[in-house]
Amino acid sequence: MNVFDHFRNLVSIPSPSWKEDGVSSYIIGKMEEYGYIFKDDEHGNLLFWNNPEGKKIMIVCHMDTVERALEPHMLEDEEYFYTDGRTALGADDKAGISAVLAVAAKKPDALFLFTRAEELGLQGSAKLEKSFFSQFSITAAYILDAAGSVGTAIISAPGKDRIELTFSGRTAHAGFSPEKGINAIKAAARAVDLNPSGRIDEETTCNVGSFIAAGSTNIVPDKATVTYEVRSLSDEKRKRISDEIISNAAKAAEDFNAQCRTELTDLYSPYVISESDKALIRALDAAEAIGRDGATKATSGGSDTNNIRNLGIDAITLCIGYENAHSVNERIAKSEMTALVALISALLSL
Question: Within 13 Å, how many C-alpha atoms sit on residue 4's CB side?
Answer without folding.
Answer: 16
